[in-house]
Amino acid sequence: MTDNAILLTSCPDKRGLIGTFSNFVFEHNGNIVNLEQHVDAEEQRFFMRLEWSLEDFALTRSELPNAVEQLARNHGMSWSLHYSDEVPRMAVFVSRQSHCLLDILSRVQSRELAVEVPLVISNHPDCRPFVEALGIAYHEVPISADSKAEQESRIIALLAEHNVDFVVLARYMQILGPEFVARFANRIINIHHSFLPAFPGARPYHSAHERGVKIIGATSHYVTRDLDAGPIIEQDVIRVSHSDSIEDMVHKGRDLERLVLARAVWKHVQRKVLVSGNRTLVFT
Amino acid sequence: MTDNAILLTSCPDKRGLIGTFSNFVFEHNGNIVNLEQHVDAEEQRFFMRLEWSLEDFALTRSELPNAVEQLARNHGMSWSLHYSDEVPRMAVFVSRQSHCLLDILSRVQSRELAVEVPLVISNHPDCRPFVEALGIAYHEVPISADSKAEQESRIIALLAEHNVDFVVLARYMQILGPEFVARFANRIINIHHSFLPAFPGARPYHSAHERGVKIIGATSHYVTRDLDAGPIIEQDVIRVSHSDSIEDMVHKGRDLERLVLARAVWKHVQRKVLVSGNRTLVFT
Amino acid sequence: MTDNAILLTSCPDKRGLIGTFSNFVFEHNGNIVNLEQHVDAEEQRFFMRLEWSLEDFALTRSELPNAVEQLARNHGMSWSLHYSDEVPRMAVFVSRQSHCLLDILSRVQSRELAVEVPLVISNHPDCRPFVEALGIAYHEVPISADSKAEQESRIIALLAEHNVDFVVLARYMQILGPEFVARFANRIINIHHSFLPAFPGARPYHSAHERGVKIIGATSHYVTRDLDAGPIIEQDVIRVSHSDSIEDMVHKGRDLERLVLARAVWKHVQRKVLVSGNRTLVFT
Amino acid sequence: MTDNAILLTSCPDKRGLIGTFSNFVFEHNGNIVNLEQHVDAEEQRFFMRLEWSLEDFALTRSELPNAVEQLARNHGMSWSLHYSDEVPRMAVFVSRQSHCLLDILSRVQSRELAVEVPLVISNHPDCRPFVEALGIAYHEVPISADSKAEQESRIIALLAEHNVDFVVLARYMQILGPEFVARFANRIINIHHSFLPAFPGARPYHSAHERGVKIIGATSHYVTRDLDAGPIIEQDVIRVSHSDSIEDMVHKGRDLERLVLARAVWKHVQRKVLVSGNRTLVFT
Question: What Cα–Cα distance (Å) separates residue D184 from each residue in D155, D160, D167, D189, D204?
Answer without folding.
Answer: 12, 11, 8, 10, 26
